[in-house]
Amino acid sequence: MTGFSHVSEGGEPRMVDVSGKQVTLRTARAQCLMMLPREVMERLDQGEIHTPKGAVFQTAMVAGIQAAKRTGELIPLCHPLGLDHCQVRIRVAGEQELVVECSASVTARTGVEMEALVGASLAALTIYDMCKAFGHEIQIRETRLVEKTGGKRDFKQTEF
């Protein structure tokens, strides 16, 4: 036994068989911590950054939701899920910090942790892409699961 759910006894990659699991409500929330240079943060006006490419946060929110919905296509052994709900939020957390958060839920046999992580990550990458013309000092410092419910056990850790 390898101990890894996505590796067979023989060491081959495999998709986990969830057919025997109960269908339950599964939720997850993930966050990315971003550091933006002052030049970018100075462009923040009424909760949004406007660039020649458009409204940064609004675009990032849509990109994060779209990415979460396509997680099963992006991560090879991840189950494709039809999400019941997905939301991306972006908030200023400090003088040069943003927190990008993605929440997802589904009623299914498997959880939505990967969907929340992918959604938060892609939203953060979209912010990077849209703001890099103002400075490449942008950093995506940490991406992590904050909480999940449903399945074998719930999980919760401190937020940014």
Written overview of the protein:
It contains 4 helices and 8 strands; from the N terminus they run E-H-E-E-E-H-H-E-E-H-E-E. With 160 residues, it is an alpha+beta fold. The strands form 2 sheets. Strands 5-6-1-7-8 form a 5-stranded antiparallel β-sheet, covered by helices on one side. The protein has a 3-stranded antiparallel β-sheet with strand order 2-3-4. A hairpin with a 2-residue loop joins strand 3 and strand 4. Helix 2 runs antiparallel to helix 4. The longest helix is centred in the C-terminal third of the chain and has 19 residues.
Question: Which spans of ≥5 residues are poorly predicted at pLDDT below 50?
Answer: none
Strand order of the largest sheet: 5-6-1-7-8
Helicity level: 25-40%
Shape: elongated
Mean pLDDT reading: 94
How far apart are the first and last residues' alpha carbons, in Å? 36 Å
Whole-angstrom Rg: 17 Å
- By DSSP (H or I, 4+ residues per run), the number of helices equals 4
Number of distinct beta strands: 8
The H-and-E topology, N to C, reads as EHEEEHHEEHEE
Main beta sheet: 5 strands, antiparallel
Briefly note the structural class of the backbone: alpha+beta
Strand percentage lies at 25-35%
